Structure formats: C-alpha cells, structure tokens
C-alpha cells in the first residue's frame, strides 16, 4: 500500500511539473511574436542582477530623451526632432561613427541622475515600462542558429581598484550594451557566450548553471559584465577570468532575477545583407543601423573629475551598438580573442566576505 501511495505521489508530482512546463511555454508564446524559433525562447538566459548595483536595466529609448548627438564635443544639427528609435539612423549621415549620444547633464558632476538608474525588475522578472533587451536571431544555415540576447543599461559604473592603496575607478561611461549568445545545432543548445568588457567567455551548454533549462548569467555590480558563476572575477589578464582578487575585479551575486524576454524587441538578422527585420510591429528596426556611440565621448583631462592613468580613463567612451558585436562570427568568441575556448566546466569562485 505504501509503495502504491509513493508511486501515486510521484505520478502526481510529475504531472504537475509537466503542467507547469506547458504553462510556462504557453506564457512565452504569448509574450513573444510569431515566427521566432521556439528554442530561442525556451533556452533564453535569465540574469541575476547584483543585489547592490544601483544601475539597473534601462529602456533603450530612454537614452534618447536624456542625451543629444555631438561630434568632437560639439552639438550636431540637422537631425529629426525628437530623436526616436525609428529615426536614430539618420545620424549616420551627420558624423557616422564619430557621433556620440552625449548626456544633457554632466555625468562627472552627477552620476546619480534618476534616468541612469534604470528599472529594477518586479517579482516576475519584468522591467515594467522599460524595453531593456533586444533578441537577435541569426539562422546561419546547415542547422546552426546563433541567438544574441542584448541587455541595455544607461550607465556603466566601473568597480574601484587600488593603486598604492589609493582607490581609483576606470571605465565609467554612459550607455552599456552587454550580451549573451546561445549557439543552437538543429534546435538544441550547444554553447553559451558571456560578454565581459572587451572580451568574454564561452561554455558548453551542459556546463552552465540553469533555472529549468534556461542558462543563468550573473551581471557584475556596476560594470554589468556577464559571468557564468557568482563571486569574484579578476580580469587583469586579458581573456582570462581568474577566481581570486588581484587588480581588476568584478563581483556578482544572485540578487534580483531578471527575465529579459518579458520586455524585449525581437529581430531576425540576415548576414549576407547585414540587415535586420522585426518579428512584429512592436519592434522598431532603424536604431539597429545607428553607427555612432551610445553615450558620451571620453572626457578630456581638463574636465573636472576626469583623469587618465596608464592610458585608462575614469570616464571613457560610450559603446557601439549591437551591429558592431560580430553577429555572424564563425566561432563562439569575437575575432579580437585570438584563442577561443569553449569551456566544458565552470571555473572556481571566491566570494567576498
């Protein structure tokens, strides 16, 4: 009788699990447009934001309301007003890659401006009122599909480092584009890329931590670099993520859980034509062609609050957008990484006391 009861309980629990999985899948279908591959949703990353990070994911369009385009620190004229995600590419003819979306109020004087703080996700993981992610699907053929999950923040606050026991910050900037990429083979996930500053790391899908079947990314406090584990991550040596604390160290923890799918734009990317198309009418396309920077140009040393040591500035250039992130890369890593390892296991971690 006890054996029968145990078997019945196991059967009931299994049915509940399958029911919940179906409900979750149906919910994803409802919030994502038709046509996007279901596997791009089923295996989409979930992000743990650091519990103490004041700079949360931001609405992509919110930057346009708080900046103006400049070239060589001088305002640009002749562009549509107001600037929107539908006409942002019009700036390409007014300076191209020399254009910077420059904050209206000096960031060195006030990095606590409300618009820089973004939106904390609610209990469901949604950034309400803020479309803070862009999902870009590149169906490469021969059974391979790369899906990029781009995450946007209005501000990057670099973690402090100590030189001769004096704290410094290098690499603060307005605008912050981060991403994870999942490579699929015939609809099955094979590997995951985590962006980290100018480079990053790749792991086999099996090696990654997951919630259900969705891989976890841990967003570093301030810098928002994505890591596969929580804890300390020293990146003093390029392309190497050391577990201890040496010089340049990010810290991650399982703070707020963010589900980028809940507030995202969805796109196809066609590599031969280097073009984008939206999966639905709610996803503006033209901003993806913008050639300039999302944020201020690096401040000169004459500006109050700015300093440069070892060619590293406290306030650096804002980043380029998704079109410059090698969306059709052959390997899991971008080409600036001479060695591209797809790690079959997670590295150790050291958590700060």
TrEMBL record:
<dbReference type="Pfam" id="PF06101">
    <property type="entry name" value="Vps62"/>
</dbReference>
<dbReference type="InterPro" id="IPR009291">
    <property type="entry name" value="Vps62"/>
</dbReference>
<keyword id="KW-0732">Signal</keyword>
<protein>
    <recommendedName>
        <fullName>Vacuolar protein sorting-associated protein 62</fullName>
    </recommendedName>
</protein>
<feature type="signal peptide">
    <location>
        <begin position="1"/>
        <end position="25"/>
    </location>
</feature>
């Amino acid at each position: 009788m006890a054996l029968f009861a145990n078997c019945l309980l196991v059967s009931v629990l299994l049915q509940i699990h399958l029911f919940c999985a179906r409900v979750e899948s149906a919910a994803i279908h409802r919030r994502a447009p038709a046509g996007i591959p279901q596997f791009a949703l089923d295996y989409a990353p979930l992000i743990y934001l650091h519990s103490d990070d004041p700079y949360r994911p931001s609405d992509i369009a919110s930057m346009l309301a708080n900046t103006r385009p400049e070239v060589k620190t001088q305002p640009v004229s002749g562009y549509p007003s107001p600037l929107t995600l539908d006409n942002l590419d019009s700036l390409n003819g007014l300076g191209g890659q020399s254009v910077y979306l420059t904050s209206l109020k000096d960031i060195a004087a006030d990095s606590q401006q409300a618009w820089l703080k973004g939106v904390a996700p609610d209990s469901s993981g949604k950034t309400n009122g803020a479309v803070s992610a862009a999902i870009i699907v590149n169906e490469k053929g021969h059974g391979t599909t790369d899906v990029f999950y781009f995450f946007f923040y209005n501000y990057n606050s670099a973690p402090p480092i100590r030189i001769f026991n004096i704290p410094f910050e290098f690499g603060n900037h307005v605008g912050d584009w981060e991403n994870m990429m999942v490579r699929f083979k015939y609809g099955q996930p094979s590997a995951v890329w985590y962006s980290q500053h100018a480079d990053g790391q790749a792991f086999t899908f099996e090696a990654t931590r997951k919630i259900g079947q969705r891989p976890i990314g841990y967003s570093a406090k301030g810098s928002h670099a994505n890591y596969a584990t929580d804890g300390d991550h020293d990146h003093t040596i390029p392309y190497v993520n050391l577990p201890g604390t040496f010089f340049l160290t990010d810290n991650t923890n399982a703070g707020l859980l963010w589900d980028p799918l809940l507030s995202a734009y969805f796109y196809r990317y066609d590599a031969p034509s280097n073009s984008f198309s939206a999966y639905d009418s709610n996803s503006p396309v033209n901003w993806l062609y913008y050639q300039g920077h999302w944020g201020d140009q690096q401040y000169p040393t004459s500006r109050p609050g700015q300093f440069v040591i070892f060619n590293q500035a406290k306030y650096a250039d804002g980043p380029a957008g998704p079109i410059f992130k090698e969306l059709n890369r052959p390997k899991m890593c971008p080409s600036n990484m001479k060695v591209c390892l797809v790690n079959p296991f997670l590295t150790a971690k050291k958590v700060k006391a």
